[in-house]
Amino acid sequence: MTGASGTVPPPATTSVTKPAPRCSYSTGGWTPRIIPQWDKNPKLVVQAATRDGKIALLGLFGLLLFVRTPLPLWLWTMAVLVTMSFLPGIRRNLLTVGTLGTAILAGYVKYGQAGPRAVAMVYGTALLTVLLFGLLLFTIAVKWARSGAMKRPVLTLNLVFVALVYAAAVMPLPRDFQREIQFTLVLLTDYLWYFAYSLQDRLAPERDSALRQLGTWAPFWATATSPGTPFCKGAGYLRRIEAKTPEELAITQLKGVKLLMWCLVLEFTSELFTKVAYQAPWGLSLTDLDVLIQTGRLPAWYLCWGSLLASFTHTVLSMAVWGNTIVACCRMAGFRALRNTYRPLQAASIAEFWNRYYYYFKELLVDFFFYPVYTRYFKRHRRLRMFAATLAAATFGNMIYHFFRDIDLVFQLGPWKAITGFRVYALYTLALGCGIGVSQMWQQRVSALQSWWGRVLPATRVIAFFCLLHIFDYTGRDHSIAQHMRFLLHLFNLV
Amino acid sequence: MTPRSAIRDFLADLLRKKGDAQPFSDSDSLLLSGRLQSLDALELIVFLEENYAFDFADRPFDQGQIDSVDQVVALLVEA
What distance in Å separates residue A263's CA from the closest CA in chain B? Predict the structure, then answer.
């Protein structure tokens, strides 16, 4: 994928003058570009830092964002971005205001059909409860940072959450009250990992205040579309990537506009691809992968390969569009965030694909599951240490994240069915964890001088692994493992 | 060799292995900027454990603590 950045482009740079390559090799030579490298043009950077330049950039960004955002949220987002661009000195305070406003608006956009009063009563109460819970938790974590429960605050947070969910699912409560509690807990899942990042920030010397932390909980660039995954991490990360000078801000905003343009190119490609792959009569008329697995009516094996490849390609494109739109907005706000998806199909190893495909989810797993295991256990056994930490993140953490994300299923199906029905995704995470673990132990760095063939072969192997694994990427609760295995075996004409 | 220069050499070596020959200052972000990745952070952790008997299990860990040469040195001094 050749996109908004160039041959060895950084998704974001450390300093204005030194580009930082995220990929481990260079493709060398001239690369055709769909979107020009405006951020590398010194005259344009100077122009973008002026009042007129900012207006032009914000205008262009607003036009591009308008295509993808509901009107009330678009208006609010643009108002926040304009204010942040012209008042960078109070950017973090504006972030809090913007985030709170978006949280309220998102409720009206999502549940508006229930009527404004119902939204205010149910959603408003739940939102207030969740935010107050977060503030209380952060205050306790700061005040009693060395106490037993706050030594491992994220573990404590997760245990408290599980206890609350279990109580809300099984305790005999008045029906309306129980529904309100369950709704609040479902909303809490959107904030859970943001709270975790705030808890991680509790011991930082330059720690942000509770109100500034609040601005990082589902920030305005992510609230409406990214339930659960912290884009772009927490307060500690935002402090480090905040643009400090007008020049940095100009470059960051130019990168934001470029990234959003690239997202629209990818979205157009994705829609075209969907038409070609699935539509009749002039398309390939492939059947949707989920339908094939669910019904069990499988066409010829080569058509199943077609459905699998189409579904995998569509998923990768959708991820790139969705995540990078959020990052583009974050950049416009003046934060030099890394891209969420960065050339995943060029990955030379399974671990590298994971790093390039869904960066902020991977970071969540690394921060809260990988490092705690890696820094504590199996220190004398290097490979075991790495493998255990990888399983903790890619398998255990991945399962926990998705189980919590869909916590409403616990209330709909009951705890036992929700847990046992999770078997397909559990198998997926186990295979993923083992794949990444093995890949990390035998990973070889890809040299800049390696031949074209030397780069294509590992990339093909990686794509094949993730493509086959994609069959089991199912977080619902009504499929059996046998249904997915049958599809897998049919691909090789074995059933 | 001082800890600062040893850490600097180690990080420069990690960057070189990735084909990144760009210069960097002691305060430059390396991990959070994307120049180094999680796997490189692990190599740095092992380097600090083996050469300075540093134990990360004693404290809450965050990638930001080892993001630059300055931060790694500060971590060693603090310990």
Answer: 21
Domains of chain B: 3-78 (1.10.1200.10)
For residue A444, the model assigns a pLDDT of 54
- DSSP string covering A250-271: HHHHHHHHHHHHHHHHHHHHHH
> Could you give the CA distance from residue A9 to residue A23 in angstroms, rounded to a whole number?
8
CB A398 within 8 A of CB A436: no
Instruction: Give the whole-angstrom CA distance, residue A403 versus residue A424.
Output: 12
Q: Of chain A residues 154-193, which have a CB less than 8 A from chain B?
A: none
Instruction: Round to whole Å and give the CA distance between B19 and A352.
Output: 15
Cβ neighbours of A42 (radius 10 Å): 8
| DSSP per-residue string spanning A290-308 | HHHHHH-----HHHHHHHH
Cβ–Cβ pairs < 8 A, chains A and B: 81
Chain A closest-CA separation from residue B2 CA (Å): 25
SS3 A342: coil
Give CA–CA dist A219/A234, Å, rounded.
10
CA angle A207, A211, A213 (to 5 degrees): 50
* The two three-digit tokens of residue A443, written as one number: 């990973």
Contact (CB, 8 A) for A359 and A340: yes
In this complex, the residue of B17, B61, B64 whose CB is nearest that of residue A240 is B64
Which of A5, A8, A18, A25 is the best substitution to test chain B (most B C-beta atoms within 10 A)?
A: A18
Asked if A404 and A192 count as a contact pair (C-beta separation under 8 A), the reply is yes
Chain mean pLDDT for chain A: 89
- Find all residues with CB under 8 Å of A375, minimum gap 6, and list them: B45, B56, B57, B61
Cβ atoms A437, A391 nearer than 8 A: yes
Is the model more confident about A453 or about A221? A221
The larger pLDDT score, comparing residue A382 to residue A398, is at A398
Alpha-carbon distance A201 to A488, whole Å? 44
Q: Residue A364: which of A195, A244, A246, A210 has the closest Cα? A: A195
For residues A448 and A26, the answer to whether their CB atoms sit within 8 Å is: yes
Identify the pLDDT of residue A441. Answer: 77
Q: Find the mean pLDDT for residues A390-414.
A: 96
Q: Using 50, 70 and 90 to split pLDDT, how confident is the model at A19?
A: very low
Phi-psi category of residue A378: left, alpha or beta, with phi > 0 → left and psi -120 to 50 → alpha: left
Closest CA to A26 of A488, A452, A333: A452
Q: Which of A112-121, A188-197, A445-454 has the lowest mean pLDDT?
A: A445-454
What's the pTM value of the predicted model, to 2 decimals?
Answer: 0.89
- Residues from chain B that touch A237, judged by Cβ atoms under 8 A, are 32, 64
